[in-house]
């Protein structure tokens, strides 16, 4: 086998097309990780074991669909692609997993932004420090009650394990809710957050019925090393696979080679490719529309931000803070502050 090239030589150049699908597009994700087909099931088992390794007591050996993919959120402003899974570990123990990714609904996007502009203009909200994440992944806002949604999914999974009759003894299997989020959830630099129900004094796990894993894809860097851990490599794949033209040396492992083969656009049928293209173009339309809306409201936004900074400077001045210190903190000149 020919020696693989380093990452820098495997990146798609302008004008070139990657042979790999974007795993953040719903159809590509489901083809690469379909639990009911042997080839893609292997990808899913590998992913789950690497992603949940700090939380699992035993490695997962088999996985199959408990129910078809569906929307459990009940929300009119978002839809969620879900795998509702039965799993067995290497000792035959059952584990329940909900694996989902949040996706903003295209038709509601403009309403989201316009409402934020109105709140901004009325003084109910402040302008976000970051409107867009690197590599074109545009993030408008955090979804409301995202972590509470995780709790809702977990509670539903536990409740669904109940059996009719008087003989059921509350033998609840461990449940795991895995969320891949494109937006920012936590105000830190960690990509993966894990949570469980623990004793507040000892930190020991109180019950294994509820386990949570959240991945913030917008924080995944466009960088990987041969010595990087397997989870970092998986997350790199999720974020950037469609920016590669071949598997780089840094990712030269059997499971990642298998994933790239499963993720080739050439594996799509004609009908699947048409659906994939439509989904992918909607993602481009999303980004273009966001840019256009913020350009349209740029003057209003900038004026409101400036008014907010002036108000902060006035409050500092009323507290008798030194003018030079106010200038340093707000960016206004000493003369501008004196005239407030």
Keywords:
6-stranded mixed sheet; 10 helices; 6 strands; globular
Structure, briefly:
This protein has about 350 residues and is α/β, with parallel strands linked by helices.
Termini separation: 72 Å
Q: How much is the radius of gyration in Å?
A: 24 Å
Structure summary, number of beta strands: 6
Give the helix/strand class: alpha/beta
> Mean pLDDT across all residues, rounded?
78
- Provide a count of the helices: 10
Strand order of the largest sheet: 1-2-3-4-6-5
Mind summarizing the main beta sheet?
Answer: 6 strands, mixed
Order of helices and strands: HHEEEHHEEEHHHHHH
Shape: globular
Q: What proportion strand?
A: 15-25%
Helix content: 25-40%
How many domains make up the 3D coordinates? 1
The residue ranges in which pLDDT falls below 50 over 5 or more consecutive positions are 68-79, 103-118, 120-141, 284-294
């Amino acid at each position: 086998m020919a020696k693989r090239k380093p990452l820098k030589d495997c990146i798609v150049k302008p004008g070139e097309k990657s042979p790999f699908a974007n795993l953040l597009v719903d159809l590509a994700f489901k083809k690469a990780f379909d639990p009911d087909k042997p080839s893609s099931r292997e990808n899913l088992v590998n992913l789950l074991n690497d992603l949940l390794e700090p939380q699992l007591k035993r490695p997962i050996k088999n996985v199959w669909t408990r129910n078809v993919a569906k929307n459990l959120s009940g929300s009119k402003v978002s839809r969620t692609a879900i795998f509702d899974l039965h799993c067995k570990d290497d000792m035959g123990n059952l584990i329940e997993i909900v694996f989902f990714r949040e996706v903003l609904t295209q038709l509601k996007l403009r309403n989201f932004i316009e409402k934020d502009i109105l709140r901004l203009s009325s003084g109910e909200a402040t302008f976000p420090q970051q409107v867009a994440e690197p590599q074109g992944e545009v993030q408008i806002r955090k979804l409301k009650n995202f972590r509470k949604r995780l709790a809702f999914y977990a509670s539903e999974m536990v409740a669904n394990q109940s059996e009719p009759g008087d003989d059921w003894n509350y033998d609840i299997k461990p449940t795991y809710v895995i969320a891949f989020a494109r937006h920012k959830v936590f105000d830190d630099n960690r990509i993966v957050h894990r949570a469980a129900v623990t004793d507040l004094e000892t930190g020991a796990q109180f019950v294994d019925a509820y386990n949570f894993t959240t991945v913030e894809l917008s924080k995944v860097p466009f960088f990987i090393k041969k010595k990087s851990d397997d989870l970092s490599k998986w997350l790199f794949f999720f974020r950037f696979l469609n920016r590669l033209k071949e598997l780089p040396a840094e990712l030269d492992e059997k499971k990642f080679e298998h994933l790239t083969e499963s993720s080739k656009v050439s594996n799509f049928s004609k009908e699947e490719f048409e659906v994939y293209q439509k989904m992918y173009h909607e993602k481009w339309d999303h980004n273009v529309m966001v840019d256009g809306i913020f350009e349209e409201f740029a003057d209003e936004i900038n004026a409101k931000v400036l008014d907010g900074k002036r108000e902060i400077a006035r409050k500092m001045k009323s507290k008798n803070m030194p003018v030079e210190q106010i200038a340093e903190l707000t960016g206004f000149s000493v003369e501008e502050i004196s005239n407030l």
